[in-house]
Every structure is written in C-alpha cells, then in structure tokens.
Design brief:
The chain crosses the membrane at residues 47-64, 71-89, 95-114, 146-166. The protein has one domain. The chain is mostly helical. It is 73% helix and 0% strand.
C-alpha cells in the first residue's frame, strides 16, 4: 500500500482518495470541518463528536444540510415528546425537550451527516453512471441549501399546527 498525501489528507489508495473527493464534492461548504471530524473517528457513522451548528440550530441545520428524512424524524420525535408530556405525564411542554434534542443533535449531528452522505453517494453509485457524472451530481445535489431552511420552517409550522390542534381538544 502506497501512502499518498500528507497530514489530514493522507490516503492509502486511489479508491479512498476518490471516496474522499466525492464526499468533499457533496459536502460543499465547510468540507474541511467535516472531513477532519470523520478522519479522527474509527467509525464516523457511530462516532460522538460535537457540532455547534447542529446544537444551536437543530432542525434548521438538518434542513440546511438537506437531510430531509432526518428532519421528518426529528420533528416527529419532537411532536411525540410533546404529546407524551401532555397526555402521559400531564405536564406542559417546556424547554427540557428542546434542550435534550439540541444536545443530541450536537453530539450525533456529524455522524448523522456522515450516514446521510454515504447513503446518497451509494445511491449515485448504484445508478451505474460514469464516475465524472457521479462527481458532478454529488456537487450539484449536495452541500448546504437554503431551500432546506424553508422546508424546515414549513415542517415546524405543521408541527405547531398539529400540536395546537391536539392540545385544544
């Protein structure tokens, strides 16, 4: 195995280099941050590492990074937790749920994003298209996207509407 590159960008074969280039293309903005976090972990899809953006912005960070399945899951968990507070415990929802979810997002955000990217790149590879086209589509489809913020706003509006309706019954 011949070592190529140095320091953070050290890789041992062409396949690993191609994987890193595809991930870089998909990530877009802040690529160095994510690659550094994942490089430090033996299993990045399971690693616990801190992400301030995921902690502070939570669902908005998930939407911005186009992780729509995780966004739906996150909002569903928020709704379920609020309903459990109200109907099971008989309490009014408070900041404990929000703080708990923020902490979970801060700790698991990088791992979730890694899983998301690996799944998206695997889908592109399964299409049987040329490597250049995979790279082009990864760059075009990935990265941060402000439409995800809009999707988050709409989903949180729906969450508040449902919660308001169910609590008014």
């Amino acid at each position: 195995m011949e070592e190529q590159g140095k320091g953070f960008f050290k890789v041992y074969d062409g396949q690993e280099l191609e994987k890193q280039e595809l991930m870089s293309a998909y990530i877009g903005k802040n690529v160095d941050y994510y690659l550094h976090k994942w490089h430090k972990a033996a299993a990045p899809e399971k690693a616990l590492s801190w992400n301030w953006a995921a902690f502070i912005f939570g669902a908005f960070w998930v939407g911005y990074r186009q992780m729509y399945a995780y966004l739906a899951l996150l909002v569903g968990m928020m709704l379920a937790a609020d309903l459990a507070y109200i109907y099971v415990l008989g309490w009014e929802p408070d900041m404990r749920i929000t703080i708990g979810i923020s902490l979970l997002m801060g700790v698991f955000g990088n791992a979730l994003y890694y899983r998301h990217i690996r799944r998206k790149l695997a889908q592109l590879n399964e299409e049987g298209i040329e490597p250049e086209e995979i790279h082009r589509r990864a760059a075009a489809d990935g990265g941060p996207n402000w439409r995800g913020i809009l999707a988050t706003c709409l989903l949180l509006f729906l969450y508040n509407f449902i919660l308001g309706y169910l609590t008014s019954l």
